[in-house]
Amino acid sequence: MEKNKTGKYLKYAIGEIILVVIGILIALQINNFNNNKQQRNKEQGYLLSLQTEFKTNLKKINICLNENEKRINAAEDMLSLFDNNIRDTISDRAISELIHLVFGGEATYKPSKGVLTDIISSGNLNLIQNKQLRQHLASFESELDFLKLQETSTHSSKDEMQKLFNKNGSVRKVLIDKGLVFENKSISDTTNNKKIFSLVEFENILLDYYLTIKAANGERFFKGIKEHIEQILVELDSEIKK
């Protein structure tokens, strides 16, 4: 009888243990399911925020490409003025317009990076399941660092050109031709900025600047970044629709 009772108790104990183990496994599975669901919800939130951010960045890079293209065309027209036959057919006002276009802005791209920076700095990039998308997001910053080197070179050439123009030309004349009215007269009011196009040094610096900004719109810089952004947006859209 004692043996039968012991056998029954042992079976009961084993059954209880099995039930406890099954309960624990079910609880773990439910917990993992809930954790995965939370992570996927968080991932979707990140994906939607990134989509908004990179759509903004696409607009910014398109504006940058268009503005830089205008500057490239203006620089090409300015380079043609070193030909006496062409320069003599251009009015002072048209020359001032070209000078203003070339000197009046910077080839600079400043993307929005708040969401991406937050995801990377918080260590949550791994929440994004798409490996290729993770890689494209992680490498976006390095592309921008490379672009900064190009921008530094562009600004350096432009600064040199500006200094030479300030020494040999008239900024006031450009502003007057653009419609700005000064109260007082100046010795530079009658200055002809055509003479700047007789300086070989100015042509050399302008040519260097032109080649730099033209390269900026190429595959390695603005155009390459635009393609990178477009690829990220395609991948984001694909992941959001899942």
Describe this structure in words.
The mean pLDDT is 88. The chain contains 8 helices and no strands. The chain has helices spanning 2-80, 84-87, 92-103, 114-121, 131-168, 171-177, 200-216, 222-240. It is 76% helix and 0% strand. The two termini are 63 Å apart. It is an all-alpha fold and 242 residues long.
Give a brief outline of the structure.
The protein has 242 residues and is mainly alpha-helical. Helices cover 76% and strands 0% of the residues.
Features:
mainly alpha; rod-shaped; single chain; 242 residues
Share of helix among residues? over 70%
Major sheet: none
End-to-end separation in angstroms reads 63 Å
Low-confidence stretches: none
What Rg is obtained from the alpha carbons, in whole angstroms? 33 Å
Which structural class matches the secondary elements? mainly alpha
Number of strands: 0
Q: Give the oligomeric state.
A: single chain
Percent strand: under 5%
Q: Topology as H/E string?
A: HHHHHHHH
How many helical elements? 8
